[in-house]
What does this fold into?
Amino acid sequence: MKLLKRVTPLALALGALTLAGAVHAADTIKIGIPQPMTGPNTQYGDQIQAGALTAIETINAKGGVKGKKLEPILIDDGCEPKQAVPAANRVVNSGAKFAVAHACSGVTVPAVNVYEQEGIVGITPGATSPLVTDTTKPKMFFRTIGRDDQQGPYAAHYIAKTIKPKKVAVLHDKQTYGSGVATQVKDTLVKDGVNVALFEGINVGDSDYSAVITKLKSQGVDFVYFGGYHPELGLLLRQSREQGLNVQFMGPEGTANQDLVAIAGPAIAGLLVTLPADFTKMPGNEGIVKAFHDKKRDPDGAFQMPAYAAVQLIAESIEAVGEDPVKVAQYMHSHTFNTGIGKVEYDAKGDLKDFEFAVYKWDKDGKKTQL
It folds into this structure.
């Protein structure tokens, strides 16, 4: 009996702490934000964090959602496929039922299964590979960015109708995102009657691309499309110029990173990149742009506005049907939203019915202009 009396105060204290923690957790709506925070692709994660955090802070300043504040849970996925499932599980273990999820397609594809199995609404502002939604046909996973089979053909049509090259080389980095968008470009160029003289993969992390550059020169190509990320494209640009290959290059949104300027140097001049349209110029977004600037964040990038829109979708859906993620997903599938990226409407797989890409040209200083 004496032992019981000694233990009871401690048990009561622990019980009180547990209850307090539960009450605290119930007072917020957690949103997981698993993005690359380390590694060579951190700028993409920085852009998505900037968009998501600005939206969360703006919504919280207006009273939150149903009287609750949104709570961001920042998680590093390194843009590494091997970190996909662990990062998604950290979202699950945090107690979040919603996520602004993953910039990189190679991470997103395996992570989607976790969100589906655990009943978490995930929205990617950055992963463009069709495999993200074609593999599992998810009910809980969505995008606020277009697919590669929208972006790739758009780029190819631009090449065929505006550039009109005689011989094109299409290179890729052999990864989910890079090879996927490159294949879309190649297939569309062929349909448009453009001569694709070379379709070849390069190895991520190599420091010398002389062998492939020699092939480009021997084939007499006058235009090169590269599917992948900025580290490899930067080296290809610089080494091509050094080795006397002075042709125009083009890449997808995954190459549009300011670190590309440091890698490529002046060879970046003339680079064409497909990116989401400049949503900062969209009428009605003046308040959103001001919110970014007030927080000393840059709204001008590929993923800031899609990330902002992802939080808007989550908040508006919770406001309509409550915090049950299944009901939120059903609401998102069946309603139209006005967001920072314009009108959002989903098909059965969680893909956007419409998304606007644009072509940008970079100058030698890394400044881009929409064409």
